[in-house]
Design brief:
Order of helices and strands: HHEEEEEEEEEEEEEEEEEEEEEE
Helix content: 10-25%
Number of strands: 22
Structural class: mainly beta
Radius of gyration: 25 Å
Largest sheet: 22 strands, antiparallel, barrel
Amino acid sequence: MSAAADDLASRVAALLPVPLPPPPQKQQLSGVAAAVLDAGGRLGRAVGDVFRRLRIDDTSYSGAPRRQVSSGKNGGRSSTGAPAGKEGTATTAGGGDPLAAASGRFARSQGSMNLSATFDSRTNDVESSVVARGDLWRAEASHSSSNGGSAPRGAGAGDGAPLFLVQLGPVLFVRDTTLLFPVHLSKRHLIWYGFERKNGVHSVCPAYWSSHRRWFFMSMICLNPIACSFMDMQFPNGQLRYVAGDGFTTRAFLPLRGGILQAHGKFPGEKRLSFSFKNRTGGSVVPTVQWPDKSLSLGLVQALSWRRHGLMLQPALQLSICPTIGGRHPGLCMELIHSANENVGVVCGYSHTSSPSAYASISIGRSKLNGGVARSGIVCRVDAPLHNFGRPWFSVQMNSGIEF
């Protein structure tokens, strides 16, 4: 009789919706901590941007030829047309932020450290940077020995002091003058209090995000005097950012007919509208319109050969061509990228504009071109102007990275 009653009870329980028990208190706290750490990481990146006085990171397609992003073991590869000195600088935005992955039970603590040093013969400038991060902390420092007319990249408000940022959970230290720590924590919003010792400025930084973190809003409000010095709003299809003294910067994209329509604008400043799509042979076509520059460019990227990397195919030889009509810099830009293997890459480029030039670079080991598979690497680049003015210059970059 008891067996029949147990069977009936089990059948009834299977048909009736039974509410799930609430998650354990430890799991709830872990979820809140993950959200707080994620917001703290975003605030750290935002504060770094404010102190660097930089615009929004332009990861979209532009008129200049760019290397295709390929997903593999060594991660995405970005454009190599920029000078080698621009690779490896201390940036607070990084792909695969470990803070966003801290959910549920905290996994075993892991971290990484990246070191970079660059010498540029044109300015006799030596730049160095250190970026170390873990699950609950992050530390970054960058220094530039540039003098004269060129300002260091790590400078905040025009001074030459090196940038130094430390994040311990949601607590942020920027240089030796600014401290931000949370005064209110919640699952969907939190509030930071900030104090800048140099100018004696007090500020409040509220942040709010949606349940799935698809929408995010954050601002920095100064209390003496009352003013909005920073505002950042991120949504699934773009971003809107305001920096006092720099204006608004917006970026948006929309999938359209098998491609991506992208708009990037700065108010006041230049605006750009582009549409990128791929053909059947693995190449991409990116027409771009810029105003008020009033220029039209057509970026063409085509993979000429492929190589196998694990289970994926990656371009071994890639050609980029970008003609530009109108504007301040009309002409033609070409770039050829050859990746012999995951440790060696060669780039050659030519620019036929009002100031024609050519460049060549080789990357061995750890670099933007080869990825972070190796622990160390070196990038050598030579630029040569093709007109009667100027002389060639070179740059050397050394990279190193460890995981612990």
